[in-house]
Design a protein that fits this description.
Chain A: Belongs to the binding-protein-dependent transport system permease family. Chain A: It holds the Pfam family BPD_transp_1_N. Chain A: It comes from Ligilactobacillus salivarius SMXD51. The complex is a heterotrimer of chains A (about 300), B (about 525) and C (about 350). With about 300 residues, chain A is mainly alpha-helical. Chain A has a domain of about 170 residues: MetI-like fold (Orthogonal Bundle). Chain A contains 12 helices and no strands. Chain A is flat. Chain B is an alpha+beta fold and about 525 residues long. Chain B has 2 domains: about 230 residues, Dipeptide-binding Protein, Domain 1 (Dipeptide-binding Protein, domain 1), CATH 3.90.76; about 220 residues, Dipeptide-binding Protein, domain 3. In chain B, strands 11, 12, 13, 16, 17, 18 and 19 form a 7-stranded mixed β-sheet that branches. In chain B, helix 10 runs antiparallel to helix 13. Chain C is flat. Chain C contains 13 helices and 2 strands; from the N terminus they run H-H-H-H-E-E-H-H-H-H-H-H-H-H-H. The chains are: A mainly alpha (about 300), B alpha+beta (about 525), C mainly alpha (about 350). Chains in contact: A-B, A-C, B-C. At the B-C interface, helix 7, helix 8, helix 11, helix 14 and strand 17 of B face helix 8 of C.
């Protein structure tokens, strides 16, 4: 187990290093300069500014500086926000996105499991069809459309929740719903399928035969076994949610990282693009590792030694 | 039974959230609070480094310089109580008021100006707006790193006298003094915070009507509160201005409708629908959109082709497509920029013959142009960026040109990200590019300088000796009226030759609560000035 | 009492040749895998309806090519701008009779704008006076093209990559998995923006960007399945018989992977449509005069408070399309894997 972990962590670092390298050189392919006021700057000024940001150095040198900085948690200084360290920008913005992502996930999984389980238990009845249609509609309506509808009808017309803003719990409800419908649909579909399969298996028949109550059968045997594979499915999804959704953040005026990221791309703010990309990648590889470990712990059938294949 | 518990907790949470939210809305406004929106985050408060309207607007309300620009960019008193100009117009002596204080208790002195200006022109500071200092003695040389900052033509004579010397006359110099870039900075504070200076409300010091609170450097809401150390605090009527960054115009309008905002910027679509309704307000901007032709290419060197394109554009229909509150351009300098003897400069230079839709004449000129070029067809691409308005623009231009010239023309469109558009314009990698320019100060030279042969922003490389001569002459003109006549002649040459083809002047449409009075919105530079704003009962 | 079996000698006579096989005769005709799947799919009403809906949409979208092309899309008629739907014969239904709610009152927008009486726009018009119905049909076509091309990459690159990775195993597999990990760690948006920079902005670069980032899921699933398939007896048998790996892959792996492939494809299509819509929404998607469902949605949402139909119609079409693909995907999964269907 320890050997396996060590190997995985090493691979993880290698992956991150490669991602950093690739994004760095991809950034350099982007045209244009990072200066907001480029149209009004003279060539000599741009030259001086480039020197300031170290953009006049050869690319390999910039690369080394960047990689070494990263090891110290230094992602450089934003071009767009003058003098603002990227690490600060990300840390101050990540909180809102993570909170929202986590809430959306909890919301989605909670109601998704209920919906999916209900559909599986009442398999092939109107309840099943209803749950399936809800799940599919949830998956089919783009969340930006949903956000606009929620804001207009629930917040403005009915006045139940604040229209936009951040700070109070009530602010988070509508964006959570808009963002959480995706994972809800996904979870419901997944739970339904795997539970139908499990409910038809022999050990459930056995449990029923033993005279266990319906709830115990469903909860102890069916649902639990269905939840395991859900972990692998939802891990990366959670990272994606927590790293922010630009559209939802824009509609509800949420100071999140997703919006920041899109803006940094549009304004050639290379250090910020790189910083957010790295945070995203770190989150992703860590979550993949964790889910693999959890998976191994829960399900003894999975061998952690990896699959060497038989040659 | 964990599952059951979880269910119960979830249900309680959902219910309590609901009830919490239902009683969450409160409205305890004293009638002295203004709720305003901005459409982007503040990038910095450092006056030397601000580059965007959001930042300039903030600075305009939380700091103050020699003058404060009032309605129609009129100069109103700021920190200067008296100004004397030498006969040759090259030396300005400002006497400062003695009762001005920074919010940390320090007095605002002439040294703060000297420090601020030297800091901005210092190439190490990396100010992207430093070019505006050009004309002040030695500024250009300092910016190029050829001279030391102490040689800048600004000196403090005691604490309350500021002496500025110029290399050449700057007729609009006083206007510049109302622009936040020229406001003073407190050396002690700048040095204390070092690289953090201006990156959050608490890392800055204020000498304006308001103080900023609650901006952390990356958040989306903050407020301005009345500054009790401000010398003219009696004139300030608002207690507080709350700001919210609104990126989605639907959200802005929703907030406005529910009374959470007193002002909301409208999108082109909303403008179309809300025009003429109560609270609908138009703010004029000094921004002109125009086409630049790449005149290193044979076909665009031909004046007839350029004129034909201008005449083929039905600006009225084109603006209908674009939506919003824009007006058709008949000149490069926009409406409302400045007045000459009570007459808008724009109306003096306005060239209707070359910029009014005339299909027959356009066709005639186009054929003539083609003949001169020895071609029977013209194919070119219009370069633009990927903003909504830009995309709609090229779409409309494409269909109008096609309609006017039929098979003789093929117009392609190239939509690229904003920054790419800029770098391609600068490097001359385009046929025709849709450009925009906004004035930094209310003077036509802010526009006309662009099209002199050697200007770095003259992307199309249009060149006209007579034009260059007139612009140069205007800078050394002995009297104001000579200067105006030089500028007028120059712009007329530019328009008659269609060196660039102006399309429209951009304006902003807002919904502004009609109880809010006394907002000063200037077309150029820092737009919003809330010093005199109040909320009627 | 003792009962004796009365066996006559003729009981020991062999049966006539034809009779013996009757016992083992399968009453139903023998079915191939495909036929079997088709049979099961036919029983799933939702899937069949979805299939019909998708086919209809494909036929309408692609069949419209001679009538709706770029030049019809460019042509604007500002005098007809922003008109609501007007369908002949539906004068009684507000919202479909040319009336629109303005400030709480239904106003006849056609009469207000002096539109000729016999002019009908079945789904209304957009801000340039272009028929929304035409634009939606064209937009659907573009969205479908984006989805299909992305799927094609999924099928070729993703499947091949997954099979090779799973089949070869060992170091090759390890390296290939790292590559997938890296690709999925770089945010799609960065890839798209770079594509837009390298290539000309427009459909090609968007399709490519979606293609580049979308095949990894397919590759992962195929790899996992290949890993388990390659230890199966029939594959071992084929190997021992000396079949070439290509042939094994083609003859044994691909058919057995087909259910995963088809199901995954059904999920790729909607997510590609979605991603394109998202790109258009943030303004870096398809460029004018081309349009897509995403572009239409984006244009519609800006006007949502005043002209809700401009968002609703494309949203409904997108939803129907997505629901159809999802239901068909579910149906196919059930059909391929009868275990889940009981």
């Amino acid at each position: 187990m320890r050997k396996y972990l060590l190997k995985r962590v090493l691979y993880m670092l290698l992956t991150l290093f490669l991602v950093a390298t690739i994004t760095f050189f991809l950034m350099k392919l982007m045209p244009g300069t990072p200066y907001t006021n480029q149209a009004k700057m003279t060539a000599s000024q741009i030259e001086i500014m480039n020197k300031q940001y170290g953009l006049d150095k050869p690319i390999w040198e910039q690369y080394l500086i960047y990689i070494f900085g990263m090891f110290h948690g230094d992602f450089g200084t934003s071009f767009q926000y003058s003098n603002q360290p990227v690490a600060y920008l990300i840390s101050s913005r990540l909180g809102a996105s993570m909170q929202l992502g986590l809430q959306a996930m909890i919301f989605g999984v909670f109601f998704g499991v209920i919906l999916g389980a209900a559909a599986a238990i009442k398999h092939n009845t109107w309840a099943d069809t209803g749950a399936t249609v809800i799940a599919i509609i949830g998956k089919s309506v783009p969340n930006f459309v949903l956000a606009i509808l929620l804001q207009y009808y629930i917040a403005l017309k009915l006045g139940w929740f604040p229209i936009a803003g951040w700070g109070q719990f009530s602010n988070t409800i509508l964006p959570t719903i808009a963002l959480g419908v995706g994972p809800l649909a996904e979870t419901a579909r997944f739970i339904r399928t795997s539970m139908v399969e499990v409910l038809n298996s022999d050990y459930i028949e056995l449990a029923k035969a033993k005279g266990l109550s319906k709830f115990e059968v469903v909860y102890h045997h069916a649902l639990r076994n269905s939840l395991i594979p859900l972990v692998t499915l939802l891990g990366p999804y959670t990272v994606a949610l927590m790293t922010g959704s630009m559209v939802i953040e824009n509609v509800f005026n949420i100071p999140g990282i997703g919006e920041q990221f899109v803006k940094s791309i549009m304004t050639n703010d290379y250090p910020t693009i790189m910083g957010v990309t790295m945070v995203f990648s770190i989150g992703l590889v860590v979550v993949i590792l964790i889910t693999d470990i959890i998976y191994g712990l829960i399900d003894p059938r999975i061998r952690l030694e990896g699959n060497g294949g038989n040659k | 039974m964990k599952f059951k518990k979880l269910l119960a907790v979830g249900a309680t949470l959902a219910v309590s959230a609901f009830t919490l939210a239902a009683c969450g809305s409160k409205s305890s406004d004293s009638g002295k609070t203004l709720h305003w929106e901005d459409n982007a985050e503040i990038s910095t408060l450092d006056p030397s480094k601000v580059t965007d309207v959001v930042g300039f607007n903030q600075l305009n309300n939380v700091t103050e310089g020699l003058y404060r620009l009032g309605k129609d960019s009129k100069i109103t008193p700021g920190l200067a109580t008296k100004t004397t100009v030498s006969k040759d117009g090259l030396t300005y002596t400002f006497t400062l008021r003695k009762d001005a204080k920074w919010s940390n208790g320090d007095k605002v002195t002439a040294k703060d100006f000297v420090y601020s200006w030297q800091r901005t022109v210092n190439p190490k500071t990396g100010s992207q707006y430093a070019y505006l200092f050009s004309g002040i003695k030695n500024a250009d040389a300092i910016m190029e790193g050829k001279k030391s900052v102490s040689e800048l033509g600004v000196k403090a004579d005691g604490d309350y006298k500021l002496v500025v010397t110029l290399d050449k006359k700057i007729p609009y110099f006083k206007l510049l003094m109302g622009f936040p870039l020229f406001f003073p900075q407190n050396q002690k504070v700048v040095e204390k915070y070092g690289s953090k200076y201006g990156t959050a409300s608490k890392y800055f010091v204020y000498d304006g009507p308001f103080k900023q609170e609650g901006w952390t450097g990356s958040n989306l809401s903050w407020k301005l509160v009345k500054n009790d150390d401000y010398w003219d605090k009696k004139a300030v009527k608002l207690d507080k201005i709350t700001y919210q960054v609104v990126k989605d115009s639907n959200t802005g309008y929703n907030l406005f409708q529910s009374g959470k905002l007193d002002g909301a910027l409208l999108s082109a679509e909303q403008t179309k629908q809300l025009k003429g309704q109560k609270n609908y307000t138009v703010f004029h901007e000094s921004t002109t959109f125009y086409l630049q032709y790449n005149q290193t290419k044979e076909e665009f060197k031909n004046a007839n082709i350029r004129k034909a394109i201008s005449l083929a554009i039905n600006r009225k229909d084109y603006l209908k497509v674009l939506g919003g509150e824009n007006t058709a351009a008949t000149s490069v300098t926009p409406v409302g920029l400045t007045k000459v003897n009570g007459k808008d400069f724009q109306s003096i230079v306005s060239d209707k013959t070359d910029m009014t839709y005339n299909k027959a004449k356009a066709k005639e000129l186009f054929n003539k142009g083609l003949q001169e070029l020895g071609k029977d067809k013209l194919e070119f691409a219009i370069l633009t960026d990927d903003t909504d308005a830009a995309k709609k623009s090229v779409e409309a231009l494409q269909s109008q040109l096609k309609e006017a010239f039929g098979d003789k023309v093929t117009v392609n469109t190239q939509t690229v990200p904003f920054k790419t558009r800029l770098s391609r314009s600068t490097s001359g990698d385009f046929d025709v590019v849709l450009s925009a320019w906004g004035a930094d100060f209310a003077d036509p030279i802010s526009f006309l300088d662009l099209f002199t042969s050697n200007n770095e922003q003259n992307d199309g490389k249009w060149s006209n000796a007579e034009y260059d001569k007139l612009i140069a002459a205007s800078k050394n003109a002995s009297s104001a009226s000579d200067r105006w006549s030089d500028l007028e002649k120059a712009e007329k040459i530019l328009l008659q030759d269609q060196g660039v083809t102006p399309l429209y002047y951009r304006n902003q449409a807002w919904m502004v609560n009609d109880k809010v009075k006394g907002i000063i919105y200037n077309t150029a530079g820092a737009n919003l000035n809330f010093k005199d704003t109040y909320i009627a009962k | 009492m003792e009962e004796k079996l009365k066996l006559s000698p003729d009981s020991f006579e062999p049966l006539a040749k034809g009779e013996a096989q009757d016992n083992e005769k399968i009453a139903a005709p023998s079915l191939t895998f495909t036929q079997d799947v088709w049979l099961r799919l036919k029983k799933n009403k939702g899937a069949v309806v979805s299939l019909i809906v998708i086919l209809l949409m494909v036929i309408v979208a692609f069949g419209s090519t001679p009538f709706i092309n770029k030049s019809t899309l460019v042509k604007s008629q500002p005098q007809y701008a922003n008109l609501p739907a007007k369908v002949p014969g539906l004068d009684a239904i507000n919202g479909l009779n040319g009336k629109i709610k303005q400030g709480g009152v239904w106003v006849d927008a056609y009469a207000k704008n002096d539109v000729p009486k016999d002019k009908y726009f079945y789904l209304g018009t957009d801000y340039l006076g272009r028929s929304l119905a035409q634009r939606i049909i064209y937009g659907t076509k573009v969205s479908l093209i984006v989805a299909l091309v992305a799927t094609f990459f999924d099928l070729t690159v993703g499947v091949a990559y997954g099979i090779i990775s799973g089949w070869k195993g060992g170091r090759v597999d390890n390296v290939m998995q790292r590559i997938i990990e890296i690709i999925s760690s770089i945010p799609n948006l960065v890839i798209v923006v770079l594509m837009l920079v390298v290539l000309k902005p427009g459909m090609t670069s968007i399709i490519l960007a979606i293609a580049i980032s979308s095949w990894t899921t397919m590759a992962r699933m195929i790899r996992a399945e290949t890993l388990s398939l390659k230890t199966q007896e029939y594959v071992l048998a084929a190997r021992t018989l000396g079949e070439s790996p290509t042939k094994i892959a083609w003859k044994h792996l691909v058919p057995n992977l087909s259910s995963i492939i088809i199901i995954q494809t059904m999920y790729t299509i909607p997510s590609a449509i979605f991603f394109e819509a998202f790109l258009s929404f943030i303004g870096i998607g398809i460029t004018a005069p081309e349009t897509s469902l995403g572009v239409l949605l984006n244009e519609g949402q800006k006007n949502f408070q005043f002209l809700p139909y401009q968002m609703w119609y494309p949203a409904i079409v997108l939803c129907v399309l997505m629901i159809a693909f999802n239901l068909l995907g579910d149906g196919l999964r059930d059909a391929f894997d009868p275990k889940t269907r009981r």
